[in-house]
Amino acid sequence: MPFSLSDFLGAVIIGEPQHRHNLCIFPLFVSTSSTLSYLLLEEALEQAVLEISEVSEAGSVNAVFVTNNGDAPVLLLDGEELVGAKQNRILNATVLIPPKTKVQVPVSCVERGRWHYRSSRFSPGVFGYTTLRADKAAQVAQNLATGGFFMADQGALWQEVDRKQFAMGVACQTDAVHDIYESYHDKLQEYVAGLQPQPGQAGVAVFINGRVSCLDLFGQPATLQKIWDKLLRSYALEALEFKGRGTSKRKPEAEPVLRAIREAEIREYPSVGQGTDIRLRGRGIVGAALVDEGSLLHLSVFATPAQTRTQAGIARPRSRRRRI
């Protein structure tokens, strides 16, 4: 039976939210878990069955090679950072790499100030913060619609990283997103301390200052459990920037977000790996999903970049930057 995102979301159960400062997280539960078996990025690297490298000695900013030498598929998630090689990158889409397969995977640079080798292979890094992922999702959707390519606007993403550094008061030697996280390590830990996934929880709907920020939903609760800490830190970095700014008086509600996703316009494309890539756009939202064998692997949805900037009053704030 063909996968229906609307039907799948219609059966999602919303739990009681967890709050931390200006961050509000609704737990999401799925009625039926996917039975697909796969490894995640860090698992595959730890088991030495996955290799991620530049596409050549010279490298290419917007592509890397991913080789799965194992017997199980490997799921790489939209927003995951790859650290090392000639410069740090972030994945443009969620991709399922089949066993015994080498795939060229689309990425974007999140370290503009370096183009030389620090290592021959990539290692796992942080998860991209929400505004960066939202911008990238909108850009990839546009490029898929017009040219069929999983490409983002690299120049625009560099500008967003510059904006984030300025807003957070951080100056990084190589303009690396990773260094912003390192600079705020202790504050991020304080933000996420005590926030834990509930048994059976498969996703989150995230609100910042009372307004919807993003949603991440997986076909299996185990996937969320494994990447919980990385995801939470990415939400916390977003919340830290906007703490005390533009707070909505409306009570956060997750159901209208799910309804907007169910009503969104959907386009489907062959994934660069295994399965079908779904792109969606609706009232104030943009997002993507990966589906394989009739099962959802990952759905990521964001408030549209323009709406996010208007609501949060994003601009170049007057703040001092500290060198790290």
From TrEMBL:
Q: Source organism's superkingdom?
A: Bacteria
Q: Which residues form the ARG and Rhodanese-Phosphatase-superfamily-associated domain?
A: 13-302
- One short Pfam name that applies is ARPP-1
Q: What is this protein called?
A: ARG and Rhodanese-Phosphatase-superfamily-associated domain-containing protein
